[in-house]
Amino acid sequence: MRIVAGEYSGRRLKPVPGRKTRPTTDKVKEAIFNIIGPYFEGGTALDLYAGTGGLGIEAVSRGIAKAYLVDRQYAAIKTIEANVSVTKAPEKFDIIKSPANRALVKFSEDQIKFDLVLLDPPYREQQIVKLLGQFHEQVLLHPGALIVAETDVTVLYPEITGFSLIGQHQYGITEVSIFKYTS
Q1: What is the Cα 103 distance to its own chain's centre?
Q2: Is 4 domain-assigned?
Q3: Does a structural domain hold residue 2?
Q4: What Cα–Cα distance (Å) separates residue 76 from each residue in 19, 52, 84?
Q5: What is the CATH number of the domain that holds 98?
Q6: Given pLDDT bands bounded at 50, 70 and 90, which one contains residue 125?
Q7: Where would you tag: which of 34, 41, 149, 178 has the fewest CB atoms within 10 A of its CB?
Q8: Gap between the Cα atoms of 133 and 147, Å rounded
Q9: pTM of this prediction?
């Protein structure tokens, strides 16, 4: 695994030890950012279920000003810390050990809003519709924010208040869905 493009391009990222995380492959990561960017001029990103932190680190490498990297596993947090250190810019990252729901409540209390949200939950916990509802209800997004959800190909989306599904792309067993916040 590596940082694909931008300021930190080519730097290697460590995987989380064990089998509890499934990192986004470089091929899928590159495809995601080619679709949504590929580069940014500032903004704030949230990498929820961060695992290695690879998606959030990629976003900052491509111009996002600040990224919040959230995971509940101790091993993932240690890996994220090591991976952020290869950027030599730790001030651009907030690493948070917390379950996703608690982190969202805290962001709401602190009035933190996001321009880009990267969701790659464990495939058995695919609650993207519920999460999008929380983002809307807790006012966590700037108008026009993009949400990238990586799931397996079995997920179907109903219409979701405040969001439009602007694209879906399949990569083997992985499906990437991109939503735009319209409220």
Answers
A1: 13
A2: no
A3: no
A4: 11, 6, 12
A5: 3.40.50.150
A6: low
A7: 41
A8: 12
A9: 0.94
Is residue 166 one of the residues assigned to a domain? yes
What's the pLDDT tens digit per position in 149-179?
998 888 888 888 899 999 999 988 889 999 9
Q: Is the dihedral of CA 41, 179, 44, 33 positive or negative?
A: negative
Q: pLDDT tens, 33-92? A: 999 989 999 999 999 999 999 999 999 999 999 999 999 999 999 999 999 999 999 999
Q: Give me the domain span that covers residue 156.
A: 26-181
Distance CA 71, CA 49 (A): 5
- As a three-state string, the secondary structure of 125-181 is HCCHHHHHHHHHHCCCEEEEEEEEEEEECCCCCCCCCCEEEEEEEEECCEEEEEEEE
The tokens describing 93, both together, are: 């990252």
CA 99/CA 121 separation, integer angstroms: 11
